[in-house]
Amino acid sequence: MEKTIKLILNFLCKHSLCFQKLRLLRNYNHYYKKQKQNLPLDKIHSERGIVYVLAPSYSNLGDVAIFVESLDFLRKYATLPIKAVLYSRQCVNKKNLLSLPLNDDDLIIIQGGGNMGAFYSSEEYLRQNIVKWFPKNRIISMPQTVYFGDKKKNYILWRAKKIYLSYKNLTIFARDVPSFDFCKQNFNCDVRICPDMVLSASPKRFLDYQKNKKVLLCFRKDIESKIENAFVKNIENYLGENGFSFEYWDTDDLSGRNIENKEEKIQQVLEYFNHFQFVVTDRYHGTILSYISKTPCIGLDNSYGKVKNGFVWFNGSNYMFYADSFEKIRKSMDEIQNLESFEINNNLLSEFDVLKQILNIKKEAD
User: Fold this and answer.
1) Tens digits of per-residue pLDDT, 14-23?
2) Could you tell me if 189 and 170 are in contact, meaning their C-beta atoms sit under 8 angstroms apart?
3) 66-112 per-position pLDDT tens digit
4) 151 exposure class (CB count in 10 Å sphere: 0-12, 13-18, 19+)
5) Which residues contact 54 (CB under 8 A, 6 or more apart)?
6) What is the bridge-based pairing of β-strands 245-248 and 214-218?
7) Chain-centroid distance, C-alpha 43
8) Of 366, 365, 362, 361, nearest to 139 (Cα)?
9) pTM exceeds 0.85, yes or no
């Protein structure tokens, strides 16, 4: 009987938009109740400016790094001042948001990352609500990986099309080519491409590089993971057989805790990376933090191409290696052993010019 019920529920999840909607709303309400959404909203002045929304109030250091670098980028290049920063759980209540002194000519910036789509439907649902609730404002969704899955009937995608198609003042930035192509095909709005915001930081080392045979392993433990335990064991065994020691670490401790002193925390992580000869990771921000700390890295893919598609931004760098097999991991380790200097992608920072231009256009067009 229990098996039959599961089969029926799985069938409804795949084929019923109504059932998908009910399930999404249940998960959405549960998620934000768990996050204690009744945080007091900061006082906001009434002057025109930038309202940064969906800032991370949880423990994922990749998203925290995006937040830190996004605000730094906006302070450097945006012509409007930042008037408010609102965390995800502060954006749930429509009545609270609409009661704030936000102007129709304020520029709304939505946090970038890798949660646009079906895997993180609660965050995507909230993103859609922001666009829906502020139809008169210009909105920029910062660089995202976009993945809505492959269901023929897909409520969260259906809702995204309905909202994004009707919104003319929305600019969506994708952070890889497949995401860009998907948005162009499905959303009738301005779509651009730009690297992840953490890559707007200039790469630098904090400690001298040492071939100390210490390796940092950073593997996912969530729904995006595709690496089997046996594959990880092979990596561990190979490292041990070749005289390497290894240590485990993750960009997310899954506690859900808000991270205080965010800039200081990211600085500590970058310095921490520099204690290792190289990093092996299937987390995209594991590769990005390696790149900006000039720590050699072997990147493995997640379940839907996030790391593989994002690795294009490291072209020209001699210390970033993508591996889709164990043999390529071994070859990458050999190349890392022979590294004597670090070369970065000298064209990477210029890829952010399109975002600088959009920020200025949004001002000049008013």
Assistant:
1) 556 675 667 7
2) yes
3) 999 999 999 999 999 999 999 988 888 888 888 888 899 999 999 99
4) middle
5) 86, 87, 88, 91, 110, 111, 123, 126, 127, 130
6) parallel
7) 28
8) 362
9) yes
